[in-house]
Specification:
158 residues, alpha/beta, Ribosomal Protein L15, Chain: K, domain 2, 3-stranded parallel beta sheet, 5 strands
Length: 158
């Protein structure tokens, strides 16, 4: 392979559409924008515009609020953890943490921590060190012979 042999993959570079270049091009005259009117011109932003009538999103009352301090937890169910154990991706002896779940491929990324939920059945005796868990999840883990340690969070926030 030489530097002068380097090429883009076929189809990686596509020529731009040349609009308004005669009737024979198929995109001449109106250039695919239809006929006249506001939407045929540049600089149009009329998403919620209703012809001067008060738009629906302004007629309806405001409701609720966004809590800027709310934590965004990854929810993990017991059946998903058991799948990872069966596949040999989670070590049964080491404590299950957010980092170990990411390494096992159960989670894509650690957000503000992991919250364990009780769907499914856990057969392996695992020790969890996580930020949150539901009561049913804690009961299921303890029934299987494991432990749940909550780090810096509430036991059940649901």
């Amino acid at each position: 392979m030489k530097v002068n042999d380097l090429r883009d993959n076929a189809g990686a570079r596509k020529p731009r559409k040349r609009l308004g270049r005669g009737l024979g091009s198929g995109l001449g005259k109106t250039a695919g924008r239809g006929h006249k009117g506001q939407k045929s011109r540049s600089g149009v932003a009329i998403k919620g515009f209703e012809g001067g009538q008060m738009p629906l999103h302004r007629r309806l009352p405001k409701r609720g609020f966004n809590n800027i301090f709310a934590k965004d937890f990854n929810a993990v169910n017991l059946d998903r953890v058991q799948q990872a154990v069966d596949a040999g991706k989670l070590d049964k002896t080491a404590p299950v943490t957010a980092a170990s779940l990411v390494a096992a491929g159960v989670l894509r990324r650690v957000k503000d921590g992991v919250r364990l939920l009780g769907r499914g059945e856990l057969k392996a005796a695992l020790s969890f060190e996580i930020e949150g868990a539901s009561k049913t999840a804690i009961a299921a883990v303890e029934k299987a012979g494991g432990t749940v340690t909550i780090t810096g969070g509430k036991e059940d926030t649901a």
